[in-house]
Amino acid sequence: MRYEDFRREYLADGLTRDMLDDCPIRQFECWLQQAVKSELEDPTAMVLATVDAEGRPWQRIVLMKGVSTEGFVFYTNFGSNKAREIAGESRVSLLFPWNELNRQVIVGGSARQMGRAESARYFLTRPRESQLAAWASQQSRPVSKRAILEAQVQSMREKFGRGEIPVPDFWGGYRVRPERVEFWQGGAHRLHDRFRYTRQRDDSWQIEQLQP
Prior knowledge:
This protein is of the alpha+beta class. Helix content is 25%, strand content 33%.
């Protein structure tokens, strides 16, 4: 199999400066709405890249659970690899790979823990089994077999019974405050359209077009 032969032309409409909103968050929300209307699977899925204490990068897919002018939100266990790496280096990168639309959005910024009250509001909307899993899983820690994890979930199920499940003190949200946001639109003959927003000192945004 010749992997170098896997290629296709990107024939979607191009992207020009006058098509962009002056605010990258509003532009992102526009593209996200289009991704949802196109019925993409997991349109809010994003690749989160972090760096560990030895400078080694790592990536994983998480679900974005909110976006505003303040930034992009996701939730995790504070003992997870991603949380421990963010504690040492808050600068992260996000990637939204909307391949079916010939688009991607890349975000660079800093991640900060959200307040407990805000995290609690989201936790209480999660399905009960997801709440139990948050209590049961020592995220990113080794486990010898799945049966142990299932037993931990059952133990939490018995502990809380039918009552309300409280928010774990080791679980919560992070908000990524963007400093750079790049919008990529695939173009014919590999002449892709790329525009990068860079945050200025006064919180305005500079927009520049990049060569593909």
